[in-house]
What does this fold into?
Amino acid sequence: MTNTVDLQIISDNPAVQARYEQMRAAGESHNIAEMLATRQAPRSVTDREFLSGECSGNQFVGDEKTGNRYRAIAEAAGVSVTGKVYKGSLARFPGDPKAWVNGRGDVKRRCIEENWSCDGMVTHRATPRQAPSVPLAQDIVDQHVTQKILDDPSQASRRTELEAEVREKHTPHWHKKKRRGA
It folds into this structure.
């Protein structure tokens, strides 16, 4: 009976990969073998790691003018920036007070509030939105139908059918209602 081990590529470094494969062959689990082969403890996913190297205000070193402007906007909106960092990727506009966060929970709440997806130290999947169905404007339909009738006067008796054809042809695909089985 052969013992098959599910080997994964954990490193481009041949020595690290060889150590990993040797430990897996000896019966170690993937997680332990990877940790020992790379000589790195697994990263935890806490606010401490999320905000590692950042503290209130140090992100604006060298651009204090922007930092002071963003802080003033937040304070005018009643948001305290003490102990928080500004994440521009969470801002609707430069200086958005809701972009000041003090941890992963704030980021997740912001993503839920705006229905944004994010992936990394914070993971959230946005709910897909359905584009509203907007009919083609009647003046556009009339313009195309009139042109078809001018091009071929015998089509005048088919005005209703021509309107339907124009709507089908010129309505953007994302505004057309999805048909079942299509």
